[in-house]
Amino acid sequence: MPYHNILIALDLSDEAKLVLERGQEIARQFSAGLKLIHVVEPILPAPPYELPSVSPLEMEQELSQQARRRLQELAQSVGIDTEDVVIETGSTTTCIVDFAVEQKADLIVIGSHGRHGVGLLLGSTANSVLHHTRVDVLAVRVGQ
To answer: In total, how many domains does the chain have?
Structure first.
């Protein structure tokens, strides 16, 4: 069954380009549309920690701006239009799954760091996305 709309979820790590290239290769094979997403997790300071000069909202806005610049640079480096780049703030899994539904994605491509031991028991973003979506998920193994 061919894919028509592919969503690539990137964490902006050093290996993000590998995930992007794998998703782009599949999109070319199926002549599929392509969107990129990165999710900035909310910053929730808890007592006894205080942020005297910068509010959590200001920090989130700055992180979102930095992520947008980085994701747009990454997209441009492989010839993807920056209009196909999305930055969300919230729960990583929820944002990816919700955006996939909104975009009618039929494949989500995401990096997986191949956790072992306790990390495997606690789960990863790729595993969480896999268990919360109804579309195919390609977990690209990155880093070891």
So the answer is: 1
Domain that holds residue 58: 5-141
Check if the beta carbon of residue 45 is closer than 8 Å to that of residue 39: no
pTM of the model: 0.86
CB proximity list for 25: less than 8 A, separation 6 or greater:
none
How does pLDDT run across 70-93, given as a tens digit for each residue? 999 999 999 999 899 999 999 999
Distance CA(92)–CA(69), nearest Å, equals 19
Mean pLDDT by 10 residues, the chain (144 residues): 94 91 96 96 70 72 92 92 93 96 97 58 76 93 75
- CA-nearest of 102, 136, 135, 139 to 9 is 139
Token pair belonging to 62: 């700055």
The CATH number given to whatever domain includes residue 36 is: 3.40.50.620
- Given a contact cutoff of 8 angstroms between Cβ atoms, the answer to whether 40 and 94 are in contact is no
